[in-house]
Amino acid sequence: MPLGAKTDRAPQSALGLRSNTVASRIRFHVLGLTFLMAFMMYMERGAIGAAAPRIMHEFHLDKITMGWSISAFNWSYAMFQVPGGWLADRFGSRLVLGISMAWWAIFTAATGLSYNAASLGLTRFLFGMGEAAAFPAGSRALVRWLPARQRAFGQGFQHSGSRLGAAIAPLFVVILISIWGWRPVFFGFGAAGLLWAIAWYSYYRDLPAKHSKVNAEELKIIQPESTSPARRINRAVPWSQIVRSSDLWILSACYFCYGWVLWLYLAWFPTYLREAHHFTALKSGMASIPLLAATFTNVIGGVWSDKLVARWNDLRKGRLTVWRSGFCIAGLALIPGVLATNPVVAIVCLTIALGGLELTVAVSWAMCIDIGGNYSGSVSSVMNTLGNLGGALGAVVIGYLATAFGWTSPFIVACVLCLLSALLAGRIDPCRSINERLHAGE
């Protein structure tokens, strides 16, 4: 339970709750909706990477120009993370996430209307503005819907949807592009996003006690403070405490490194396979293999961390053991992967690298909840800002490095960033929460 939370529960009759023997399972439906959100968002991100060779050919772009066009999304996405997280804390995830995904849907479809590098860059910039609130709001949406002991699992499951989407996209989108061209793919994703936004706003409630299908037994499983009708969504966000958290800034610096390496896979991996290993367009769909592995390790990282926390009764040790292990695995596997001349060996090693990297994701977002508590939307937005700045810089710099020095250099840089993050991990203590500092009068 977050420190400072009210523990008194209103009478069930006042809340209008149904008392049944078996707990309802609405919390899993909510978790499933956030999984689907992440799945669709990263299907689209994987689609832009898979479509990149066709777009470059059609618009007559080189890798550097394409890198700038793709990174326009990352820049605006990073710029609007903090406003998006603040809005989620201030007005609740039901409204903010619904609007964010509707915006996402509109500009996903608009991507298919691009006709040159400038229009593609502008569309991707506007696209990132609206999507920026999605993950902070999605992370915050689970704070009151899952018990504290399942924080890392919930974050891992939610974010595994993103990796599954990115994993399916290269092969799926390449096939669709070969049949219909790249533009209809983005029109279809836009339509799906609008349907999701409507479903989310209709079904989700910021407080579980206000959901008509949640019963008293499920509320006993969820955090007790979720049942209090006195708890309000709109409260002042203590930014002075947030920006003074050294733990948050170290976590965010490591997430910057994570974002850089992730976008090496999302934006450039299909192109790398085609240029370094001479894969055909359809065969470059094998870029989905590392991302498919990442789908599972995303969940594994969350479950592993929660189990270690419970076994050792040590939040810090349970979180950082998994986090440090993931970055070390990624750093040590990247170099043999890129140096391998055999494409099968290369894909195996690079799959292990991304799988290790993704062990850290659920832990990173769980630590945002550990540190942020009731203000986890704002805290996670700071971390995700740095992560997407890493992705934005990576998408551009990787294009320059690959053009000037070949494909080995971007992977060496990625290796260094992973090992640096593993070293920085020891300086974080997720037990030092914002709520605790507020109630201590700091």
Which helices and strands appear, and what pairs or packs with what?
Blueprint (H helix, E strand, L loop, with lengths): L11 H4 L10 H34 L3 H17 L1 H11 L1 H19 L5 H15 L2 H8 L9 H30 L2 H21 L12 H6 L17 H5 L2 H31 L11 H25 L2 H25 L3 H30 L3 H30 L2 H17 L9 H6 L3
Structure in words:
With 442 residues, the protein is an all-alpha fold. It has a single domain, classed as Growth Hormone, Chain: A (Up-down Bundle). The chain is 76% helix and 0% strand. The protein contains 18 helices and no strands. α8 packs antiparallel against α13 and α12 packs antiparallel against α17. It is globular.
Structure summarized in a few sentences:
With 442 residues, the protein is mainly alpha-helical.
Total count of domains = 1
Number of helices: 18
Percent strand: under 5%
The CATH class: Mainly Alpha
Query: What is the assigned CATH homologous superfamily?
Result: MFS general substrate transporter like domains
The residue-averaged pLDDT reads 84
Using the CA coordinates, give the radius of gyration.
21 Å
**Gap from first CA to last CA:** 20 Å
CATH level-two architecture: Up-down Bundle
Label the overall shape: globular
What is the helix/strand order? HHHHHHHHHHHHHHHHHH
Features of the shown structure:
disordered N terminus, single chain, 0% strand, Growth Hormone, Chain: A, 442 residues, mainly alpha
